[in-house]
Amino acid sequence: xxxxxxxxxxRASILxxxxxxxxxxxxxxxxxxxxxxxxxxxxxxxEMAKTISLGIDLAIEHQSFYGIQESIELVTEIEDFxxxxxxxxxxxxxxxxxxxxxxxxxxxxxxxxxxxxxxYFEYPFSMxxxxxxxxxxxxxxxxxxxxxxxxxxPIYIFxxxxxxxxxVVSSYLSxxxxxxxxxxxxxAKQLTAGNYDLDIPKAKLDDELxxxxxxxxxxxxTLRLSKQTNDNFNTYLESEIRRRTxxxxxxxxxxxxAQIVADLAHFELDSxxxxxxxxxxxxNMLGLxxxxxxxxxxxxxxxxxxxxxxxxxxxxxSFEDNPTFKRDIQFKRTDTGTRIIEKWISxxxxxxxxxxxxxxxxxxxxxxxxxxxxxxxxxRLSLVAKNTSNAxxxxxxxxxxxxxxxxxxxxxxYSREEMIGSSPSMFQFEKTDPVxxxxxxxxxxxxxxxxxxxxxxxxxGNEYWLELNIVxxxxxxxxxxxxxxxxxxxxxxxSREDEIGNLLILSQHQNERLKNFAHIISHNIRSHxxxxxxxxxxxxxxxxxxxxxxxxEQLVQASKNLExxxxxxxxxxxxxxxxxxxxxxxxxxxxxxxxILDVSALAKAANVDIHNHIDREATVSGxxxxxxxxxxxxxTNGIKYRSDTRKPYVKLRSVYMDDKLMIAIExxxLGIDLAIxxTKLFGMYKTFHKHEDARGIGLFITKNQVESMGGQIxxxxxxxxxxxFFVTLNxx
Amino acid sequence: xxxxxxxxxxxxxxxxxxxxSKMLKRLELFxxxxxFENGKAxxxxxxxxxxxxxxxxxxxxxxxxxxxxQFLERIEESHVIDDLEILVxxxxxxxxxxxxxxxxxxxxxxxxxxxxxxxxxxxxDTEAG
Lengths: 732, 129
Description:
Number of helices of chain B: 5
Largest sheet of chain B: 5 strands, parallel
Number of strands of chain B: 5
Helix content of chain A: 40-55%
Order of helices and strands of chain B: EHEHEHEHEH
Oligomer: heterodimer
Strand order of the largest sheet of chain B: 2-1-3-4-5
């Protein structure tokens, strides 16, 4: 049994209560009894003494000694005294035992009244002065004590019994109390230990302990549920935490990656501006490996002076007023390998405070070199747009003007403010061609760029012609962002064009008139020359003898020459006026065949072999009549200027060259001395053979025909070996 | 021997007419040669005496008042051309003229000036042949 626990305490308290009571009783009652007994004894004895004294007095009075004896014998019934003695104080003042009871009691003990063994009760007697003395009754203390003890013993026994009963009862009571208490304590201990799975039977009674029990039951249940809820919550919390931690890790990793991707770098400085922490990307960005050993001042060595002073300003104290420092700085460093690192870096600095104490700075760096370069580029481009003498007008998708350059202001006469927000139709007026306007609208609706000439009116009423180039601006997803229009003032050009147009019309009219004139003249000349020939013919026919006349001969020749010249003129004029004839694709082989057919009689008569090796599929773009004429002429030449000393031939072949076709007409005839005649070969009226049919005009006409089809003609020749003409025409 | 009886020369150039008449007479092709200065004169004659049509008309293109083209159109309209043989003469070298002539299918032939005796003979010989 421990001395701490409640059972003991209860037991102890009950017991001690009982015991105290019993002790109190045991002390008080017996002592009271003793007291009472002694009082009783005293009283009795005193009474006795008194009685005896009286008796004696009476006896004395009556002079009866027998009476004294009887008086003394009276007391023999009383057993609880030690002795009774009548002590006379005789005339000598000496005590004299007159009588005593028990008779054998030693006198000395009667006289020794200081003896502690007895209690003495004295009562004086004597009426007679001659017989005086005391009655002494002694009560033996021991006897008294014994008597008292006898008297008290049952009490003690009774008390002892009571004690035992009390112990039992107290035990029982304490148990009755402590058992539930212990149980509750145990329950409480379990609950404290966290074991809520208890089965607490409900108490049946309604007293405080039962209530406590029931409350504990409820509490236990509540705690159990609470624990369950707690457990569930904890489980949930754990999984949430796990998940969040994972997310956090992922986010952290992403952040790290993002930092690297975005070329972000960060670092921290302490209040002494030593570098105390930095990210990996910082080292990479600045190209410094030993950044941890650096003082911020060292880094400033690589920064331009202007930036340095602004940084020092901030770090020196202005961060207290303006906490955030943000600036694009230039960073230039020469590596150990003489490699120059030059970058634009965006620096953001913020001070760090801990409990309102300044602790240092946190910085973020971002590599913006790329952006700066682009910005510079854009700036340069914007200068172009700004300064170009062309007007540049940018509109949004609602066709409202959002930006204009200086030239736009100059050309239109309106100020920037007047133009921005309005539609470009502000520049159009009643003379602006509606067809052009519609065409512009249509194209832009289809997201197609458009070039057009349009008449606009400026602020001051001036009309001007513009060459418009409008391009729709499309975003990355082909969504329309707006339009950009570049406009050139072509008023002057337009007026010149008009002039030219007028001139053209004028010259066309003149041309027409000239043509008509030429037509008429040439016709008339031809008529006259033809008449002349005819009349000469008739003359000769009617007077044949005139044939021998020299003059008539020359007249005839002159007439023929005239005819021929006129014919030539006609030929040349015909070429130049027929330029508008339709150019069509021509199959060269077929045309060559026709030409060969044309000259077949001539070729046969001259015994010349003509070979057509032109590619059957070869086509050129030209006027069929011309091509035929060209080939005929060149073949004819080949026939005409054949050699007598070898079997003559004319060969035709074709050669493909890029977008052109070269036709070669080759003969093995007399050849031409190009050194002498080369430059005049294709000139009009230049003959180089004293040949009866030598006409210079042929090649001149041929050249004209070739060139009118956009082609070229060249010649290669060796005297007495042969000639090859090369005619190059456009492919069909 | 005269193959044809009558011919008309519709031309405003008297020298040419003179020369051509001589040639025709030389060739003894026609017994009758009538000269008209321009298309209108010839047309009037046709209208006046539609039955007296010539066998052959030598038609010039360039004439005042009514040129050869207009004359052709007019007689084509009136379908007189079916009974006529027309030879067109001209000193034109304009290919568009020649092309245009091709459209008038009823024209016998086109003879560019100057005309030679041989050419005439050739044309009328083939005719005869």
